[in-house]
Request: fold
Amino acid sequence: MLKLSQFQPHGDGQTLDTEILQTALDQAAQTRETLEIGAGTYLTGSLFIAAHTQVKFEAGAKLVGSTELDDYRMIETRIAGVETQWPAAILNVLSGTDVSISGPGEIDGQGPVWWERYWGTDQQGGQRKIYDAKNLRWIVDYEVKRPREILLYQSDHCVVSDLTLRRSGFWNCQITYCDQIEVKNLIVTENNGPSTDGIDVDSSTNVHIHHCDLSCGDDCIVVKSGRDGDGLRVNRPAEKIEIDHCVIHSGYGVTIGSEVSAGVHDVHVHDMVFENTDCGFRMKSSADRGGTISNILVEHLEMHNVQFPFSWLMNWHTQYNKKTMAVTPDMPPMWAAVAAQIPVEQQKTLVRDITVRNVVATLSADYAKEARAFDLKAFQDKPMQNITFTDCHLTASEFGHLIAVENLLMNRVYVSVKHDNDQALEKFDTR
Reply:
């Protein structure tokens, strides 16, 4: 066992410990010893974990991410479905195999500093306001760079477990171009900022996420496979994903999308609890996006005070997805990658072969929001196909929408609603 204390870190949360931590990680990789990070608060920029390395955070051990962007190495990576240069995460496994990162320690990204740079102190300002005024909503999320907490990239046979991730500047745990990954007993909390997804599975295969507890400001667990033209260029689907025995307290639930240009297939979501979330099981895409979502099994879900148990919007958030500039020779490379389109004949996402069963959704008597049981919206020329709901008991304010759905079977589905559809809820389509 290799102990971080041997390298004499400051551990005061005020003095940068990046170099000391990296030296310890490098030695652990060379000697194949487990690096034990003892109690202490370690201020750090980006750290890189090599293949065949085991890192163990003891109780009381905390990494605190620096709030200086220069402390994060710029790397070739993928952000929101587009390959680009972006700051590395706090912990990075790049082209690594046989890596274990385990707790019970924690990582604190000092998110509020990064969130304010994006949307100001009141969520109405910052860089977002500036870009919105220029009709550049589609690029601002890429331009305002914010570090993630954990990145697994082009890696395999890795395990992340028993850690607490809080206040991430951007996504908490991203898994991109990976195979044979397990994430378990992860706590994601205090994430009330923009794009603070919990766990993102991006163009990866054989991923198992289980027994996690998540509170997020965006999608809690999400499966993606690339955005528009850049996603189709890479053309690497997300497949063979299992998500189970997690508890979700806030955010947009378990999501497929919105970046699905290479397709998402063979996903099994089961034995999940949702408490006071905006969404339960969600699918979202854009008219420009393309790709196919298929062979999805969702079962044994308990939802309490969930506003949208099933929100499947194939033309979601048009302001974010609609590019307002054509690709030009003098455009910055990242802008060109985001703006790239796919052929018109391949646009519009096809959703097919979806099975949902054994779901109970209830509302408290004092639940203040308007809840919609179903929000299934596709395209007339590319409807959802072969959708089955079985043994579902849903309580909501309104039934909702079924638009462009072909071969829909509802078997023992019981829905209790209070009133007609509320037009005020239509604004959710553009979130």
Q: What stands out?
A: The longest helix spans residues 18-31.
